[in-house]
Predict the structure.
Amino acid sequence: MPWSLKRYYNTGAIHFITWSCYQRKPLLDNPGRRDLVLAVLELMRLRYRFAVVGYVVMPEHVHLLISEPGIGDPSKIIQAVKLRVSRRLAIGGGFCVRFWQTRFYDFNVWSQQKEVEKLKYMHRNPLVRGLVASPEDWQWSSYLSYAYKEPGLVRINDWTWWENKIRSAG
């Protein structure tokens, strides 16, 4: 972890997380690999009990906007996603060398204004990079969930676990 980067967990904040492919190579330029990242993210969402507020999977990196998990912390989630994706690719013969950079960036989002800013940034990323003509053309982001209420591979804004926890505590 960079010396100046501090991680703040158990604060109730939303986390804006970014991690990259090894040496920022476009190792996720294959639609099947991007689908795999999202399938694994959904599996981990259920396992670690966190809400996904937004996401985008780009050819060489991933952005997430997530809640604090009910089990573990965001570091455990990212570790689990990276490990599962790497193993699935290795088993399938899809990749046999390093796939991910070892670290990730985590920014605590403290306001709704900052949350909206991060969502817009993520959803515009494929457009700005010239990968698509419009955000709705990139199926590996949460944009379609927000714009058209279309379900994707990852369930967006499912706070059920947190709501049940609050109900049982009260």
Observations:
- Strands lie at 14-21, 52-57, 61-66, 100-109.
- The longest helix spans residues 31-48.
- The chain has one domain: 14-169.
